[in-house]
Design goal:
With 251 residues, this protein is mainly α. Helices cover 80% and strands 0% of the residues. The protein has ten helices and no strands. It has helices at 3-20, 26-35, 41-65, 71-88, 91-108, 119-131, 135-146, 151-156, 160-210, 221-250. It is elongated and about 130 Å long. It starts with a helix and ends with a helix.
């Protein structure tokens, strides 16, 4: 093992130790970044895959563990894993945990108003979801963003702030409609593919059932001629033998 490989192995072991000790902090993220600083593309790909599986497993365990913790502790842990997934390039898990963190803040804001997610935050997050083709969740994020507004108060008010809010509502609404259209389009494509596959399966089954019973293949001409030749030769021998027996009996 080279010095470089040995150093990477030590850093991986250190990162595992940090996670096992529930040290979800910036130091652990820096260790993770140093692990992925290798210049070997092949080993880097393998490292990312291994670390992704490890971090996914640990994130699920950690989320179950923090369920009874304070809101600050829950958010801190979620933010750590959002950062970890971002470092290893696991966009799906990164966005999923960001969504969980924003929803947690939204629900807890009924008691702690300082946790409330702004409509701009929801809009920015929805745009990220849309860019990464998570259309259904993008539409949900837009719903949360729209729920931040008290429309009646905005319509009645003529302040500059209310005008900005109306523009923001319009932007979020357009984004939501776009996400819903794309989600429906994707669902339609999956449905069409499923129907096409089912049609082809039934058609193949019907064609198989409509075919007549298969006959035994005709023997090839060469083998037929060979057997006919053997049969004729045996017949000649039999006839010759009969003539010999007949001649002997006459004597």
């Amino acid at each position: 093992m080279s010095d470089s490989d040995s150093m990477v192995a030590q850093q991986i072991a250190l990162f595992h130790s940090q996670i096992n000790k529930k040290r979800f902090n910036d130091d652990s993220l820096r260790i993770l970044e140093s692990v992925l600083s290798s210049n070997d593309v092949k080993s880097l790909f393998q490292l990312r895959s291994t670390l992704k599986d490890f971090i996914r497993s640990e994130s699920l365990s950690a989320i179950r563990h923090i369920a009874a913790k304070t809101v600050d502790q829950q958010l801190s842990t979620l933010e750590f894993f959002v950062g970890a997934f971002a470092i290893i390039g696991d966009i799906e898990s990164c966005l999923a945990l960001r969504y969980e963190a924003l929803v947690l803040r939204e629900h807890k804001s009924q008691i702690h108003q300082w946790l409330q997610v702004s409509p701009v935050e929801w809009l920015n997050f929805a745009e990220q979801l849309l860019d990464n083709r998570f259309y259904a969740i993008a539409a949900k994020a837009c719903d949360y963003g729209l729920s931040c507004f008290h429309k009646n108060e905005i319509v009645r008010s003529k302040t500059d702030e209310s005008c900005e809010n109306l523009q923001l509502i319009e932007k979020i609404t357009k984004l939501k409609n776009c996400a819903l259209t794309l989600a429906a389009s994707r669902s339609g494509m999956f449905l069409i593919k499923a129907q096409a596959a089912e049609y082809l399966r039934k058609r193949a089954s019907e064609e198989c059932n409509s075919q007549p019973p298969s006959c035994k293949p005709a023997p090839c001409a060469a083998s037929t001629l060979y057997r006919d030749g053997i049969k004729k030769r045996n017949d000649r021998k039999l006839n010759a033998s009969r003539r010999t027996v007949s001649s002997s009996s006459q004597l």
